[in-house]
Amino acid sequence: MNILARIIKKKENKDNCFISLDIGSETIKALAFHLDRKEDKVYILGFGEVKQKIGNMEGDDIQNISGVIASCKKAIETATAMTDIQPKKVVIGINGGFVMGKAIKLEYQRKDFKLKINLDEIRSMVNKIQKDVHEKIQNKLSLDPQEKEKIEITNASVVDIAIDGYRVISPIGFKGREIEFNVFSSFLYVNKLDILKKIAKGLQLDLFDIVASPYAVAMSIGAEDDMKFNAILIDIGGKTTNVSIVNNGNIAGTSTFNIGGRAFTKSLSDELKISMNEAEDLKLKYSSNKLDKEKEKKIKEIFAYDCEILFAGVEITLKEFSDTNLLPTQIILYGGGSQLAHIGKIISKLFLKKSLPFPAETKIKFVNTEDIVNVIDKTNKIQGCQHINSMSLANFVLKLEESDDGVNIILRDLIKKSY
Asked: Are 26 and 58 in contact (CB under 8 A)?
């Protein structure tokens, strides 16, 4: 290989390298990954995980920016130490109370409906989509006029397009009177966006994108035909649980409440009069079936109340989502807290007892790293489900980069310019 070819290859490798950051209430997880555009694959080359220090987070909200930056640096250093790449771009995934997500339907009437749709018309439509999404989000949040400028859309994706009722992948070249767009948008308050900008700047990384983590997960574990994917996603983290509804491949809504795996540890600590570290160790042994039957039974009884509280949060959230629609019967559990022994069976039994509008019996599925499409762990060391969000963020970047959908490319460029 000549010198010029080596320089070009080195530049291509640099451009295709990213960091994904999953900033959780309990831990920060970082992945160093490389996009192979020819193979449409993501290769994980390194990973790191660092516990959040006390005071860094309040639920999903970042309280101590410098503390979070320091923890992110440690996680990234651990990840990049496993490889010779030094990525300069970062995609950040945030849950619940920090970044919000809404699915919005927009309909437009074309005056010259007998003409074929061209790129100029698409650009005009996308400009209108951006403005209308912003306005609809403001209205849904019932913001005062003085508050309206405080919302910023960080990511928007047209997930479904129909012309006169017929679905199309891209509207370019079609004729029709009415165009309907289903758009999923991630948005947050400007002051929170400023926090993420400060984190990226503190890490000396370019902020490539900010993503609602449930949306990235939904894109990464769906069926081959995303439009047929329906599920309830339950991400049980350390201190919070995030619940999202996916209908026909679209995120219909997402909500977060403050209970996670840490609550189970505290119950053990309180009931058995042991330290939190001892309780955490006992919880892990229980989840790994390393205890005798008598101890297992006792711990199961202690956890029963916490499971009820956890489910109550899930139930309240689902009732909000199910005002007008039946709920998906596929329940997908992930996150560190989902590894708790028997939690799937307990939640299944609780679903049977409650009067939620399911059209059929629910089915519980646990997601592991091998379920994330297009992502290959070259380290062969990532196990379990703790890195589901960060791996899904990597797949999200791949899908953005490989997209040849003119609508989403223009929309993404507009949004990126705004922040």
From this structure: no
CA–CA distance, 198 with 275 (Å, rounded to integer): 36
> Which residues have C-beta within 8 Å of that of residue 225, sequence separation ≥ 6?
none
* DSSP notation for 310-351: HHHHHHHHHHHHTSSSPPPSEEEEESGGGGSTTHHHHHHHHH
Q: Which helix (H) or strand (E) holds 41?
A: strand 41-51
User: What is the token pair recorded at 383?
Assistant: 């196990």
If one counts every other C-beta atom within 10 angstroms of the C-beta of residue 291, the result is: 16
User: CB–CB of 17/32 below 8 Å?
Assistant: yes
- Evaluate whether 322 touches 246 at the Cβ level (below 8 Å): no
Q: Which two tokens stand for residue 54?
A: 């006390």
Q: What is the mean pLDDT of residues 162-172?
A: 88
Which structure tokens are listed for 189? 């308050």
pLDDT in tens, 135-144: 877 776 665 6
Q: Tell me the two tokens of residue 259.
A: 């209970």
For 223, phi then psi, to 5°, come to -70, 170
- Could you tell me which residue, 90 or 318, shows the higher pLDDT? 90
Q: Could you tell me the pLDDT band of residue 273, with boundaries at 50, 70 and 90?
A: very high
Q: Yes or no: say if 31 and 85 are a contact pair by the CB < 8 Å rule.
A: no
Q: Is the pLDDT of residue 8 over 50?
A: no
Q: Are 149 and 134 in contact (CB under 8 A)?
A: no
Write the Ramachandran bin of 388: left for phi over 0, alpha for psi from -120 to 50, otherwise beta.
alpha
Burial 232-248 (b: 16+ CB within 10 A, else e): bbbbbbbbbbbbbbbbe
Q: What is the pTM of this model?
A: 0.83
How many whole angstroms from its chain centre is CA 413? 21
Reference 213, options 20, 31, 343; nearest CA is 20
| Among the listed residues 232, 419, 409, 193, the one whose alpha carbon sits nearest the alpha carbon of residue 333 | 232
Q: 101 vs 85, 359, 417, CA distance in Å?
A: 32, 25, 20
DSSP bridge pairs for 57: 62
> Helices (H), strands (E): how many in the chain?
11, 17
Virtual CA dihedral for 382, 383, 387, 388, nearest 10 degrees?
120
Contact 386, 49 (CB under 8 A): yes
Of 387, 368, 277, 398, residue with least CA distance to 24? 387
Domains of the chain: 3-98+192-218+371-394 (3.30.420.40), 100-184+406-418 (3.30.1490), 225-366 (3.30.420.40)
- What the block records as the tokens of 177 is 């009177």
